[in-house]
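Assemble and predict.
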Amino acid sequence: MNFSESERLCELLETSGWRETKNPDQAGLIIAFGCSVRQKAENRVISFLKSHKYLKEKGTIFCLAGCTANLHKEKIFNYLPFLDIVCGPNHIAEIPEIVDNYSPGRIIIKTGEKDSPFIECIPSKKNITIMIPITKGCNNFCSYCVVPMARGKLQSRKPHSIIEEIKNAVEQGIKAITLLGQNVNEYGKDFTTDYDFSDLVCEILKIENLMRIGFVTSHPEDTSEKLLSIMAQNKKIMKHLHIPLQSGSDKILRDMNRKYTVEEFLQVVETARRLMPEISITSDIMVGFPGETKQDFEKTLSIIKEVRFNELFIFKYSPRPMTKAFELPDDVSREEKEHRHRIILETQKEISREILSSFIGKACEVLVERRSIKNPLLLIGKNIQGIPVTFKNNQNLIGKIVNVEITGYEEGILFGKVNGEYL
Ligand code: SAH
Ligand code: SF4
């Protein structure tokens, strides 16, 4: 979400005359997008800003944006007294005007919830893929999660705004989109009509020359058979589902307020695989939630072995202010969290390797995205499961779907050779 918002803000700033630089020493303005989901992410943005504080002397304006800004508001000055602008996610579109009218010495704080428009501007960089935010915030209140406090309540973007943006993007050469939301299946729940996420996807499917549609994240509770059937019936929809499980213990899921049981989660996986045997399923797992016993952890490990996810994002529980779980004792020691994290990481590494090796000898339809920066002889794209594929080729195939025969894999990337015509 932060990545997408920063990409859009860059675009707005460029329209008002700013130019992006990768070198902070050259910057007249530094905007750091802070993620507040885990303490570690927050520490990272704070130390990034601190390490560039020396630029203050030459007049660089410092802005903290993203949900960290919203969560801490003026309290963030206790850590970062030299900030000039603190701007939460709902006010990002105001940054160009703020910086254009900025006079040194002023402190500007723009935080809090308000129904704000989505930033409707398409990044003009010559990419063929784009992320399209479709919801802001979240109404789920999982007990560990700060998102509802940091990003506010669910706000779905109007369908016509999404469709218009995608049509414009396609006219500019975009071939693939990823719809973005904390829980895409919640899309439309704040509308007065019964228009839902499946309706939106069906409308997007009608857009000509759009080759692929993906989405992230899906909450297990709301991943309906209706949506899975639409996915199965449409070649344009990515065969990839990111459904965070978090824990394999029903007790922990209940304490997390996740609103599904392990059995119900397995049911979603079973339906998805029945309808789309080739589907890639990825997930998030959290270890060390308050009260997670060794037995709870063993249950998580056993589900991971049973489901065999393509890939996992594994997090160590981190207490977050204003959440329900913050009131519970953080009673799994740091060492134990590390230990559980490592065991899952190693187990998953092996499963991911086995899954990737099963592609060897098979053909994949790869939408080519770009040339490799490290080795320009190589093209890089994604197959329909969203797995990166690279192959050697000197033709201009960017934006085309190419049949690639997989010959090997390394570090999560498949490689292969071109096999037959371009689609
Ligand atoms: N909306 C998504 C998740 C968004 S946050 C969903 O509901 O699935 C991404 C991931 O960060 C979560 O899936 C969770 O595993 C992790 N996470 C969130 N809060 C956390 C916390 N307090 N400590 C550790 N990990 C956390
Ligand atoms: Fe956080 Fe739960 Fe909402 Fe995901 S669904 S953003 S984990 S509250």
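The pocket of S-adenosyl-L-homocysteine (ligand 1) is lined by residues 37-38, 144-145, 182-183, 217, 219, 244, 246, 284, 286, 315, 317-318, 320 (CB under 6 Å).
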